[in-house]
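Intended use. Records like the one below are meant for learning the mapping from a protein sequence to its folded structure. Do not use them to infer anything beyond what is encoded.
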Amino acid sequence: MDWQAFWLTLRLAGLVAGILLLMGLPLAYWISFSRWRWKFLVEAIVALPLVLPPTVLGFYVLLALGSRSPLGRWWQALTGHTLAFTFGGLVIGSIIYSLPFAVQPFATSFAHVDPKLMVASSTLGASAARTFFRVILPLSAPGLVTGLALSFAHTMGEFGVVLMVGGSIPGVTRTVSIEIYDQTQALNYSAANETALVLLLISFTVLCVVYGVNRRIWTLWP
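Structure written out for the chain above:
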């Protein structure tokens, strides 16, 4: 097994899950409580990676990060190279691809919080931020755990977007899923099986953690 690819994938998944936590919480809050008439358009955009083929999404992300796009030209002028086929490009593509796996569980948990509790908090003089951190967030803990775990596991196993945006550069963009593909193409099934088993165990462990923690979540939040 290529441990360099494994640690790169682990770093990518951890970074993406952390960024999606910071991005997903305010977005999910807005989706849950906004009364904007056209809110469904934002919800559709967030959910688009669920139905869009990974190669299509990866193709457009590649164009957006390339030297012909405004973002790509700005980044190239700033750093001397484009974001495409770099670890930073993988992070951006992975964030877009895994966005619904974080935002939707967050938003679902927020929407199930009893409105009476939020009204009571406001009546007692708590600010919106205090109500969020002391009432909404603790009661939404199962959704937060689920969203973090799903975004982490989904990033660990993604293939199409990673291949389109990053290619297979050892130590830079070559992830575990790309390694499995390369080993299979080389007819090295034993090595591919070894790596696939590692991903299988990680995915199973993540799901066990999600279900186990969600069963005892109320003991974690007094």
